[in-house]
Amino acid sequence: MYKSIGFFLALGVGCVLSVSATTPAYVGDQRLQVTHTQQLSTGAKTTSTQHVSAEGTVSVVSLPDRSQPLVHAPKAAASSQRVLIRLKSPATQPYLKQQRAQLNPTGKLSRADQQTLSKATRNYRQGLQKSQAQLVDVLRSKKYLEQVHNHFVDLTNTVNATVPAASLADIRALPEVAEVYIDNQISVLLDKSVPVTEAPELWAMRDTTGNNITGRGVTVAILDTGVDYTHPDLGGCVGTNCKVVAGYNFVSGEDPTNFMDKHGHGTHVAGIVAANGKLRGVAPDAQLYA
């Protein structure tokens, strides 16, 4: 079984290139079959076929002395990888919790116990830092390290570094290493997250009154840090005819009528629910209470 794609390029006067890429549909064959046909102004045609990796790129260059497509070499696998290397010793906070439970699991600590715990925790933290430095030295000596980005010892005993991709298994096998995790860069944006929920498919449907299901006629209360109702994607105003109808500030000692978001999380949640502008929430026509 083969899948084919094709396209035509007009390159200059009297020169038309027809390029088709055919790739096997079964697993294990990563080749692309590239067929190149060139028709010259004289009417003559030249046809050739080449195989390249499916990971490669193909570009066609119109030059007087070139009758073949310029095929770039396959893209090499990433030679470096940013990772999180977790060591086997517990981080500082788990150690602190364990030591406190041993001193007095149910009641308050005496001043002497507090001082003992503080000193032990400080020494333990310094020990973690030393063990991480030793690990870095080992990685460098084995040429498993390209760059160190961060050291973490409080909530996790982890070194954040860039290493050669080929060394991942060897690093995992080191006696002091518990695990190696890929440090993927993650970006979560509303324009990408809403389609995942299949909300756009719902918007195309109609309710019993014939209206699209976009949240029209629905009001949602956002119990959070407030809402920035001046944001253009949230209507830019507050009132009956605005997206944000009204709100209330429950924080003691503050003006209950001032529900402007000072933190940002409430506005973030409100946008997920009902933004309708540059970004669209899951129910773009719904109204909000803050």
What does this protein structure show overall?
The chain has helices at 92-103, 111-141, 168-172, 190-196, 199-203, 265-274, and strands spanning 2-10, 16-24, 31-39, 45-53, 58-59, 70-71, 80-87, 147-152, 158-164, 177-182, 219-221, 244-246, 287-289. It is of the alpha+beta class and 290 residues long.
Mean pLDDT: 80
> What can be said about the biggest beta sheet?
4 strands, antiparallel
Strand element count: 13
Radius of gyration: 31 Å
- Helix-strand string: EEEEEEEHHEEHEHHEEHE
State the end-to-end distance: 57 Å
Low-confidence segments: 1-37, 49-76
Strand arrangement within the widest β-sheet reads 1-2-3-4
Q: How much of the polypeptide forms β-strand, as a percent range? A: 25-35%
| Shape call | flat
Number of helices: 6
Global structural class: alpha+beta
Binned, the helix content reads 10-25%
